[in-house]
Amino acid sequence: METSAKQTFQAGPSKAVPRQSPEVIDVDLLDDSAQYTEPGSSQHAGKSTFKLAAHSPEVSATSASSIPNARDHIVATRQSLATTTEVSVNPQYPPLDVDPVAYPLDDCPWKTTSAPYSFLAHALATLSGTRSRIAIMNVLTNALRTVIKFHPASLRSTLYLLSNTLSPPYSTVELGLGPSVLSKAIQDVSGLTASTLRRLYNSTGDPGDVAFEAKSTVRTLIPHPPLLITGVYDAMLKIANSKGTGAAKSKQAVVQKLLVAAKGEEVRYLVRTLSQNLRVGAVRTSILSALARAMVLTPPSTLELSSDSPFYVSSDQLSGIKPIAASPKKKSVDRARDDLHEKFLCAEAMVKKAYVLHPNYDHIADALVEAGLGGLPERLPLTVGVPLLPTLGSPARSLEEVYGLLGSQAFTAEFKYDGQRAQIHASRRSSGSNVVKIFSRHLEDMTDKASLQPLLSYPDVVSLVDDMLSNYERVDSFILDAEIVAVDPADGSLRSFQELSNRARRDVKLDDVKVTVSVFAFDLMYLNGDILLEKPFRLRRTLLRTVLPSWTPERMSAARLHHVQSCESSEGRESVEQFWQEAVNSRSEGLMIKLLDSGEVNENSREGKSRRKPLPATYEPDKRTAAWLKLKKDYVSGLGDSLDLVPIGAWHGNGRKAQWWSPILLAVWDPHAGKLVAVCKCMSGFSDAFYKELREKYPEDSDTCSRQPQGLYDILTGGLKPEVYFKPQEVWEIRGADVTVSPVSVAALGLVSAARGLSLRFPRFIKVREDKKIENASTPEFLANVYHSQQGKGEHGGGVDDGDLVDVDVDESEVEEQYESD
């Protein structure tokens, strides 16, 4: 059994660690250890003595005799090990990466009444072993089909565990499990010392691999019931809800029980889940697409389906689909498969739309099981109190580009304020307090400060909305999009984002607010029960300005409501250009150009062909649309937009910078692969004070800076090999001269060149983006779009590629001059 466990580890997706012959441990003693206490000693001391007796190859007579029945238990364990121990291997499940049409679903693949966690671990292990998008989609689709058919009650838990989350993004539920608690739990269950675990981690770099290796030495006398998907999810909720004194001990106890019951690959993916780093290529869009496909192929048996439903496929239709040809060159006409693909696309659009309007897996799973795909719009409408994903703008390099794209179509130019984007929900109540919610651009709830995240708090904005509901008689409910900006309380002039970020972040009372803010509203998505998303921006803006006019409370330091300052294209190009200069001279970031009415634009393909493309002026959740163009004032003649990059490593500086990290290796976020991909080195824009702070934040050989990649994210560096790796934990705004093809970078590899990636020439640090998460960093596709935009305007990058950058001891101004002269 020891051999089989070791072989299983070696066959897994991560590398094995050579070890000596393991000692067999009876983990059943762990649960009882607390009750065995030596007379006159503390419970902690008794527990330590008992652990020594249980884990040591030789048990002294003194220690064993002081523990009732301990000697007999240990002797019995060793004598009966060969015949009574439980084999820590997972059940055999059918392959999940096959064509869903050919996936067998006749018999339930498990023997328990509920879906076992071993099945989900099987799916995660398969996902971890492939980079093929087709295989990933097949695995997710077939796994979800199996759960929907044989235990639909596990669907919600499955979706959360696959997405490595516990709750909707606007919920305050957070796991809150530190690495020390997890490490102690692994140590107690395995009996390995802390130094041994540390060596394992240094060899593998992954907590899941460490736990798998450590647990492979463990056997139990009493078989433990199999872990269930719902049970694992509920246990994680229990960990998240453990608060106050003794919370760490309670969390560790829950983790230990899970680890004791886990077998084989369950251990690896259980610990990766608890570490919040699954290391599989299943991103949100893939999960939603797979969920839609699973519903098309295997709808819940409780649904009454129509034979002509556009969402489902019958068994007869499935039987008529031809097997996929082994060779991709031998493609044959298969109308039945084409019809299935059309149903997939229709269902995917339905599920994704439901999520962007109502991002809650609990509600989505319930709606699908109870009402099916067709019931999603009615069951999950846009709702006050549930944030929708925001519309995103596309970068523009100049006003010439704006006019070239939009032509004579009417647009408005609005100040792009340097503040925090906020989605404000409000609903009047006939009795009691009104419903007021404020969400960040990442949908985090900034109203209730129970979150562990250091979010800004806005009790003054809540008070402002209450005043508005009291004074605007025509308004019962609304959802608006806005920017919260720090202002001077005396004259309302704009203040910097830095001042806004200095506001208190936890348990803030209204009287404690020190930084006055203005809410600059720029869009209205919902009003008095009417959903306005499909209305053109011109109408939405008119309603916003007439129904929700500007409001300034009497108290000078109170938050106030204003509409964004704007200029219409109908006023003439000269007026728009003058307005642009006002933005340049102000504290704003630049302009947002927004199409007022739906129309069409010319789009050039990579082959150079031009075609007309519809350009809606509707509100498009979670889409980066050309109907919203960002024109930032900084380096507008260089890159059209800044890049949001993640610092992932560094080199030791030279000369004056010898005691600091310089240059810094930066990465884009690849959402398809779930990896951070190195794009360039940066050595410009940093002050000495920032260098010192950076060294304090990333001290060498620490939890945040080591010789091997660490943290929750996989890292791909290509030819850019740093001397140390940072734990990815922040996003920086970076600007540069242009994007260029690179012989060493693998960022956007295949999007521009089959053999080379893209890099940023003369990158310069602007600021830390505290409002952005790692997953919101710039993507390879965004980088490629910037490159293609340059090529379309004949702005070809030149000079030395950033991959060849050497951090010589030069004056900062010399770098600036080189940057500006390029």
Automatic annotation (TrEMBL):
Gene Ontology CC: nucleus
Entries under Gene3D superfamilies matching the protein: 3.30.1490.70, DNA ligase, ATP-dependent, N-terminal domain (1.10.3260.10), DNA ligase/mRNA capping enzyme (3.30.470.30), Nucleic acid-binding proteins (2.40.50.140)
EC number(s) recorded for this UniProt protein: 6.5.1.1
Residue ranges of the region described as Disordered: 1-23, 788-822
InterPro entries: ATP-dep_DNA_ligase, DNA_ligase_ATP-dep, DNA_ligase_ATP-dep_C, DNA_ligase_ATP-dep_cent, DNA_ligase_ATP-dep_CS, DNA_ligase_ATP-dep_N, DNA_ligase_N_sf, NA-bd_OB-fold
GO biological process, any: DNA recombination
PROSITE patterns for the chain: DNA_LIGASE_A1 (PS00697), DNA_LIGASE_A3 (PS50160)
Protein name, per record: DNA ligase
Residue stretches of biased makeup (Acidic residues): 801-822
Keywords: ATP-binding, DNA damage, DNA recombination, DNA repair, DNA replication, Ligase, Nucleotide-binding, Nucleus
Subcellular location: Nucleus
Record GO terms (molecular function): ATP binding; DNA binding; DNA ligase (ATP) activity
Enzyme class: ligase
Residue span(s) of domain ATP-dependent DNA ligase family profile: 510-670
The reaction(s) this protein catalyses: ATP + (deoxyribonucleotide)n-3'-hydroxyl + 5'-phospho-(deoxyribonucleotide)m = (deoxyribonucleotide)n+m + AMP + diphosphate
Family from the record: Belongs to the ATP-dependent DNA ligase family.
Main location: nucleus
Compositional bias per record (Polar residues), positions renumbered to this chain: 1-11
